[in-house]
């Protein structure tokens, strides 16, 4: 059954409540820089200040990088951009990539949007890019992040001890992965 997507802005992958779309650097860079400067989000994703100009440059550079695929996460109900999802370090020889998701609108945390965006990106990675392994890493303190990964089917592999320095303290990182064969079993 085909969904009516005529009211959505450049939909690429459509889910139940969300859709993934290409980012428009000129349009979306302000939200990107706002999210990257938010203390709660910065804790897990970036320690560098981001201006609108720098945000646009960053988004432009990510789109030029053939080893990186980035989408905006938008709500179907109002087309509001609420986050980012991507695959980075794509290795075509080994068919692997590293996954990440950021739900930048903190009012939507804990409501399953991260899990839905994750599932949409996994579908894209395994069924369209033909990846064999997708991994993700979450700081141990990012309980919502690793719980969303587990709900989406990722398997815990282990912990990298004191891997990331943030705000004057070393943090351990949980590593998760999902294999294509495991993903296909869930369909």
TrEMBL record:
The keyword Transferase applies. InterPro entries: Acyl_CoA_acyltransferase (IPR016181), GNAT_dom (IPR000182). It comes from Dictyobacter aurantiacus. SUPFAM superfamilies: Acyl-CoA N-acyltransferases (Nat). Keywords: Transferase. This is N-acetyltransferase. Residues 18-176 form the N-acetyltransferase domain. One of its GO terms (molecular function) is acyltransferase activity, transferring groups other than amino-acyl groups.
């Amino acid at each position: 059954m085909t969904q009516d997507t005529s009211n959505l802005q450049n939909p690429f992958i459509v889910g139940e409540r969300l859709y993934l779309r290409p980012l428009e650097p000129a349009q979306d860079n302000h939200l990107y820089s706002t999210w990257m400067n938010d203390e709660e989000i910065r804790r897990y994703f970036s320690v560098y200040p981001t201006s609108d100009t720098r945000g646009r440059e960053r988004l432009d550079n990510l789109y030029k990088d053939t080893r990186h695929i980035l989408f905006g996460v938008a709500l179907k109900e109002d087309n509001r951009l609420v986050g980012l999802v991507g695959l980075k370090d794509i290795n075509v020889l080994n068919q692997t990539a590293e996954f990440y998701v950021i739900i930048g609108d903190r009012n939507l945390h804990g409501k399953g949007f991260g899990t839905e965006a994750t599932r949409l990106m996994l579908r894209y990675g395994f069924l369209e890019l033909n990846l064999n392994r997708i991994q993700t890493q979450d700081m141990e303190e990012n309980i919502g992040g690793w719980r969303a990964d587990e709900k989406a089917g990722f398997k815990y592999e282990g912990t990298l001890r004191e891997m990331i320095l943030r705000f004057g303290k070393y943090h351990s990182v949980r590593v998760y992965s999902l294999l294509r064969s495991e993903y296909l079993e869930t369909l």
